[in-house]
Amino acid sequence: MDWQRQTQRRHLASYIVCGVVIALLILATWWVHFANKPSQQWWQEVKQQLSPNQIAQRLKATRYLQDAQKAISRGDWDGAERLLRQAVKVDSQNREAWQLLVMVLVRQNRWDEAENLAAKIQDRKAKADALLMLADIAYMQRNWGKAKQIYEQVIKLDPDNATALNNYGYMLAELGEQLDEAEKMIRKALKIRPNEPAFWDSLGWAYFQRGGYN
Questions:
Q1: What is the per-residue pLDDT across 131-148, written as a single tens digit (0 to 9) for each?
Q2: Threshold 0.70, pTM exceeds
Q3: How many CB atoms lie within 10 A of CB 56?
Q4: Which of 41, 127, 140, 208 is deepest in the core (most CB within 10 A)?
Q5: For the chain, which residues make up each domain, given as ranges?
């Protein structure tokens, strides 16, 4: 019968599609594991990040981080420092913990120690975030020279760090220095995060400082 033939054809087509999908999956797995070394490295990193031990370490670090935040809210800087050091010890890629740790050190007037600590961070993104915290603090303290130096370190480490690009550009605009470079950095930040209102505000400020805002 026609409907039986049509059903058989549909089943056959389904088997063919499934076979093609399975073949593609096998090929992709082979490519990831054997043919493409960057993908193989990426796959190994993913497996490591999802390992039970790594997940347990991250959860442990998160608990330390939460307790440290409570200590900071109480003004217990020593306690916060101890907890944050534990957090980065068990999870060296915990960017928020590194940021808070350098902030806590600066809060205790231990600038040199904070900078030395940030310089020793192995994870590139975590190091950039920790240095960005230091640069922002230097900016708020109106320590322009130190802020410039550290912002430049951050951008060298992480050229697409939109927050660093924006903050450094805004500071230069505020100082009335290197306005072309300031605008260039802010525009790059906006390309990365085009829906960030603060970045548009920075661009307006740069225009104003150049006398181009009406």
A1: 999 999 999 989 999 999
A2: no
A3: 11
A4: 127
A5: 54-111, 123-213
